[in-house]
Amino acid sequence: MPVKTVPTTNRWVLLALQLPAQPSNVRVKTWRRLQQLGAVPVKHAVYVLPNSAQAVEDFAWLRTEVESAGGQATVFAASAVDDVDDADIIDQFKAARAADFKELMNDIRLFKRKRGARGALARKELRSIRERFDHAKAIDFFGAPGSADAERALASLEEEHRRSAPEPRPAASNEPIDRRQYEGRVWVTRPRPGVDRFASAWLIRRFIDTNARFTFAAMSTAVGDAVAFDMYDGGFRHEGEHCTFEVLAYHFRIVDPVVRRIGEIVHDVDLKDDRFHAPQAPTVAGLVEGLRASIADDQELLRQGMAMFEALYHGLKSSPAPGQAARKRGRR
C-alpha cells in the first residue's frame, strides 16, 4: 500500500499500527525499531516523526515489516495531530533525547572513574559510548537539553584517553629524508592493491612526488631503481604496529591533521585492530572491496582507489573531528 500523498506543508509523518497477537516478538521488534528511529507515541498505537523524506521511508519499511508479520499499518502525513498540541509532541521528543543524553553523561562519568582503563576493552567501551551519542544526536530533532554537555564531555574524554595512551611512532631514520630524491620517480608495489596501497599511492602523489608513476611487481627489486612501497621484502612498508601509509606520513614529515585522520582509518581497515575506532572505517572497507571486485586492471584499480581517498580527504577537511567541533562550540 503506497504512502498517502499529502501537501509538503504537513509537519508530521505518522505510523498507525495494528500488531498481531502472535508471535509476541513482533511487538518487541517493532518497539525497538521505533526507538531506533526516535519516534514517539501520540495516541494508542500511533507514532510520529518530523516529516522528512527519510522519516517517510523509515516508516514505510517498518509498515512492510509489520504487514509481512500479519499486522496492519498505515503511513500518512498531517499538519497537526487531533487533540495533541505540537508543543506537547515536541516536548516529548526533547524528553526522550534528554534521557538519552543524561544516561550517556552517567556512563562517561563511570568511565572516567576507571583509573588506568586502557587497551582493547577500554577502546571498545569508549567507541560504544561514541556510537550511542552519535545515534542520539542523529534523532535529536528539536535540540534536547544535555546534548551539548554530553558532546563536550565525550570529546574531552576521547582526547584524554588518546593522550594517556600515546601512539608509538615508527623508528626514525638516522638521516633525514631528502625529498628531492623522490621527485619524478617510479613507485612499485604489489599487484591487486588494497586499502593501504590506495591510500599510500594517494599520499605519494599528493604530498611527496606529484609526478609519481606507479607500477606493479612481486618483488621490490624487480623494477630498476623504482621506490618500493607496501612490499614484503623492502622499501617503505609496515613498521611494528604501523601500516605503510602511517610509515610514509611519518618519515616524510607530513603533518596535515586530515592526513592523520585518514591514517587512523587506513590503520583500522588494514590492521583490523580497531586501535582508533575510526567511524568511517567500515564504509571505507566496503568501498575498497567493491573496487577490487569490480575492476580487473590494476592501474585502473589504483587510480580509482586514489580518487576515493582524494574525495575522502576533501570530505574530512570540510568536517572537523568530533573533538575539534566540541571545542569550537565551547569557545562560543
What's the structural blueprint in terms of helices and strands?
Elements: E1 12-18, H1 25-37, E2 40-43, E3 46-50, H2 53-68, E4 72-78, H3 86-113, H4 119-138, H5 147-164, E5 186-189, H6 195-208, E6 213-216, E7 227-228, H7 244-251, H8 257-271, H9 281-294, H10 298-317, H11 322-331
Parallel strand pairs: 5-6, 5-7
Antiparallel strand pairs: 1-3, 1-4, 2-3
Helix pairs in contact: 1-2, 3-4, 3-5, 4-5, 5-11, 6-7, 6-8, 6-10, 8-9, 8-10
Question: What can you tell me about this protein's structure?
Answer:
- It is a single chain.
- With 332 residues, the protein is α/β, with parallel strands linked by helices.
- 53% of the residues lie in helices and 10% in strands.
- It folds into 3 domains: 12-84, Alpha-Beta Plaits (2-Layer Sandwich); 87-164; 179-317, no CATH class.
- The chain is built from 11 helices and 7 strands.
- The protein has a 4-stranded antiparallel sheet with strand order 2-3-1-4, sandwiched between helices.
- It starts with 11 loop residues before the first strand and ends with a helix.
